[in-house]
Design goal:
With 465 residues, this protein is an alpha+beta fold. It is built from 17 helices and seven strands. A hairpin with a 2-residue loop joins strand 1 and strand 2. Helix 13 packs antiparallel against helix 14. Pfam families: Beta-lactamase (PF00144).
Length: 465
């Protein structure tokens, strides 16, 4: 207990007091403050993974917290290999731009040029479209496809696009799949071979590996709230897994223009069609001084902030998805001598068991903690109750799930996503009128909610039968 109190006081002293006075900290103090932040995050059960902070190629902080899988038998080390989620898509997009800069490919090339057996719609979808998720390509049907051949066959049998290319935004992994096929068509070699020859070996990413099996040395497994290892089945291949040091080599190479030009990098950091939508490389600030990207897959969760002018990298890689995205912001604020937030414990995880036993008891416990420990738990995060609602829904506790989603909406009445979640719970419980009502509310609050639109049509068709 004394050790824990010391950590709290350390953060309060170094973080809030110094940052508020804007007194520059030495790197030694930054190291200690970051370590205190990370130790509290681990102790509170909201981080399990690796952390790396560098500046001008000098190490500011590096440490491993927790275990390589749900069994808790093997501790993570800096040699541990993680799935970085969507961050792996960067290797695809940068490969495309490398071929563009060589003159082997044009962003205006049509998909129909690459002998993929696609329907006539491929004659109007360009490389630039799929790089920016505006090609009208649907999502991969992960629930039905078993391998890459089936993914390709689905696209070959797709009669129509979701919309005219360039007129709307739709995030989808099919666009990444098609980019890999284009690279293979142009280079006449497997995507993994091209990346190995042109990126991995030149950057000396010695531990990076594509699609490692469960028994691959140092490979971590992602695990859930029950400490159960996730299935981790990947129908689409060619996903790069890395250590945190190798990921830093990649981030540094992009920041220092070692692979593609700064102009090409900026074109990937900014959506070329819709200013407020995401990009395949995550995103940047308006002045392109930073590069930020996060990725998730199963219970893996990784994120980094790369700051160009100061040559800063802050990377977190976790195999137990929780609050990694918030923690990286606090570390960045520590580095910049700004006020930062202490990580909060998960209210979802705290009340989950009581909600399973008795939903009313669980909500009473929630309200009691809110009165006494508001600053300790994540009451300000709508994803906490949303995650609990989906947890209960997956366990077929439909009424309990609906109760939690209603509680979430009462706490966050302006969150369109929560209305969408409640609508899904009602739909699953075959309460179609209430489902439609909440989908319409969600769509009213967020007109871009294509899922709500589709579900409303689905419910209307049910009424007609």
């Amino acid at each position: 207990m004394n050790r824990y109190i010391t950590l709290i006081l350390s953060l309060l002293f170094f973080g809030f007091i110094n940052a508020q006075k804007q007194i520059p900290q030495s790197f030694l103090k930054k190291n200690k403050t970051i370590d205190s932040l990370m130790q509290i995050s681990y102790d509170r059960g909201i981080f399990n993974g690796n952390v790396l902070v560098t500046r001008n190629d000098s190490l500011v902080y590096q440490k491993s917290f927790g275990y390589s899988d749900g069994t808790g038998k093997t501790k993570l080390t800096k040699e541990s290999i993680f799935c970085p989620g969507s961050i792996a898509k960067e290797f695809v997009a940068v490969s495309i731009m490398m071929l563009v800069e060589k003159g082997d490919l044009s962003l205006d090339d049509k998909l129909s040029q690459f002998d993929l057996g696609l329907p006539s719609w491929s004659e109007k979808v360009t490389i630039k479209h799929i790089l920016n998720y505006v090609g009208g390509i649907p999502k991969i049907k992960w629930e039905t496809v078993k391998n890459e051949q089936e993914i390709l066959e689905d696209l070959q049998n797709l009669p129509n696009l979701l919309f005219e290319p360039g007129t709307d935004f739709h995030y989808n992994t099919n666009s990444i799949f098609l980019q890999k096929r284009v690279i293979e068509s142009v280079t006449k070699k497997p995507f993994t071979e091209f990346v190995t020859e042109n990126i991995i070996k030149p950057l000396k990413m010695t531990d990076a590996v594509f699609d490692p099996d469960f028994d691959y040395p140092n490979r971590s497994r992602s695990f859930d709230i029950y400490k159960q290892n996730a299935l981790e089945f990947y129908a689409s291949k060619g996903w790069l897994w890395t250590t945190i040091d190798d990921l830093n080599k990649w981030i540094t190479a992009l920041r220092q223009d070692k692979l593609i030009s700064r102009a090409s990098l900026i074109s990937l950091l900014k959506n070329q069609y819709f200013e407020n939508e995401g990009t395949i490389l995550g995103g940047s600030d308006n002045n392109f001084k930073t590069h930020e990207h996060g990725g998730q897959s199963y219970q893996f969760e990784s994120i980094f902030i790369s700051e160009f002018g100061n040559e800063i990298s802050i990377i977190l890689m976790s195999n137990h998805k929780n609050q990694t995205f918030k923690i990286v912001k606090s570390i960045h604020n520590i580095i910049k001598d700004r006020p930062f937030n202490l990580p909060k414990k998960s209210i979802y995880r705290e009340i989950r068991q009581k909600c399973l036993e008795d939903i009313n008891q669980g909500i009473s416990y929630y309200n009691a903690l809110k009165r006494t420990d508001y600053d300790i738990y994540g009451f300000d995060n709508p994803n906490e109750l949303n995650s609990l609602g989906y947890d209960l829904l997956a366990l077929k506790k439909f009424k309990e799930s609906i109760t939690i989603f209603k509680l979430a909406i009462s706490e966050f009445p302006n969150d369109a996503n929560l209305y969408d979640s409640l609508a899904e719970a009602y739909y699953t419980n075959k309460q179609y009128d209430l489902s439609e009502l909440n989908y319409r509310k969600s769509l009213e609050m967020n007109p871009k909610n294509t899922n709500a639109e589709a579900m409303i049509k689905k419910i209307e068709n049910k009424h007609k039968k």
